[in-house]
Amino acid sequence: MKGLSDKEMEIVSYLEFEKKYFFTRKDISSFLLSYNMMRHTLHKLIQKGRIISLNRNKYYLVPIRAKSGKWTENSFILIDEVMNGNDYFVGGWASANYWKLTEQVPMKIEVFTTKRQGIKKYLTTTIIFKRTTYERIKDAVIQEINGHTFRIRDKEESKKWLKSRI
Question: The pTM is what?
Answer without folding.
Answer: 0.83
